[in-house]
């Protein structure tokens, strides 16, 4: 369908088929803005919102399909997930797909603010550090035992 020189036809088509247009294709004035407080209200499997690079995404319907599992999304639900998203090295396809779930942007006043994370995320480093230390110490002990047995 061509909309050359027919702005009202394009607008009507966009209103009738909102699912095929991302926010990037809409004018800036149509983008809804949300506060950190509003986003934080959507932090469970029934309503799961994320902030990534100051854009707000409703990934509720996508959560069960997420390749990394719903748990990782729940760890970041209702807050800024930019670090987690970038740490996962998402593909270009994933970055394009996420535009389908964009519902708006973080309001200017809340951009750059550090949002209080839940306790689960505050201690996330322990989930990596403790097993790493245990594996390293175990490897050293086993190497010592094997070295002594060779003598």
UniProtKB/TrEMBL annotation:
Domain (Cytochrome b5 heme-binding): residue spans on this chain: 31-107
Regions that span the bilayer: 128-147
Any GO molecular function: metal ion binding
Cellular location(s): Membrane
Predominant cellular place of this UniProt entry's protein: membrane
Entry keyword Metal-binding: yes
Superkingdom per UniProt: Eukaryota
Key words of the record: Heme, Iron, Membrane, Metal-binding, Transmembrane, Transmembrane helix
Keyword set includes Amino-acid biosynthesis: no
Gene Ontology cellular component annotations, sorted alphabetically: membrane
PROSITE patterns recorded: CYTOCHROME_B5_2
Family listed: Belongs to the cytochrome b5 family.
The name this protein goes by in its record: Cytochrome b5
Organism field: Caerostris extrusa (Bark spider)
Encoding gene (name): Cyt-b5
């Amino acid at each position: 369908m061509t909309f050359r020189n027919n702005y009202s036809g394009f607008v009507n088509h966009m209103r009738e088929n909102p699912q095929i247009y991302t926010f990037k294709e809409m004018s800036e004035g149509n983008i809804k803005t949300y506060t950190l407080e509003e986003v934080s209200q959507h932090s469970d499997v029934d309503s799961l919102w994320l902030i990534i690079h100051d854009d707000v995404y409703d990934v509720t319907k996508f959560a069960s399909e997420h390749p990394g599992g719903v748990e990782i999304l729940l760890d970041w639900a209702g807050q800024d997930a930019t670090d987690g998203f970038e740490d996962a090295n998402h593909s270009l396809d994933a970055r394009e797909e996420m535009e389908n779930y964009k519902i708006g942007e973080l309001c200017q006043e809340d951009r750059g603010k550090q949002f209080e994370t839940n306790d689960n995320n505050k201690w996330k480093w322990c989930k990596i550090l403790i097993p790493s230390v245990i594996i390293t110490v175990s490897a050293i002990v086993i190497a010592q035992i094997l070295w002594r047995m060779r003598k």
